[in-house]
Amino acid sequence: MPSDADGMTLRGDRAVPDVALTGGSGPVRPSRPLDATLGHGFEGSGTETSRYRGDSAGASNVGGMSEVHPELAELRNSIDNMDAALIHLLAERFKITQRVGVLKATQGLPPADPEREKEQVARLRRLAEASHLDPEFAEKFISFIVAEVVRHHADIAEAHQRIDPSV
């Protein structure tokens, strides 16, 4: 599959993040920091093992100083990078759903759309299965997100109702 410099791989007519394509073949090494402000270790940054000094899980004690096995530190840094990517993606998702909530409120639509939610759950379960992820976990994950979105939409609708009771 062709890959470009932005960390995306083309699958048919879709671009998918390379992090989703690791398949357990090794740690993810982003080409650029996803969250440099947190000081996460990235390949070549010099922080691959130093971030986890003092952590006793998987560490050896040499001369009174505990060091994490380099591979464990590298894997943990890969996980940290993916966690940062997830948070950034969720933040972007919530920015869009806030706009949806405003649109729903101004159009007098209900905060929840059970049919859309059902379709989303089914779509993400299929995606999870194709990605070798537990579909039950995927369903719980999206259900948690959707519940939070619906809560935000209800808050937006309530605020809009106070401003414009005609809707």
From TrEMBL:
Keywords: Isomerase
Entry superkingdom: Bacteria
Pfam families: CM_2
Single annotated GO MF: chorismate mutase activity
Keyword S-adenosyl-L-methionine: no
InterPro entries per UniProt: Chorismate_II_sf, Chorismate_mutase-related, CM_bact, CM_dom_sf, CM_II_prokaryot
Protein's GO biological process: chorismate metabolic process; salicylic acid biosynthetic process
Region annotation Disordered: where it falls in the sequence: 1-64
Segments forming a coiled coil: none
Chorismate mutase domain segment(s): 66-157
Full protein name: T-protein
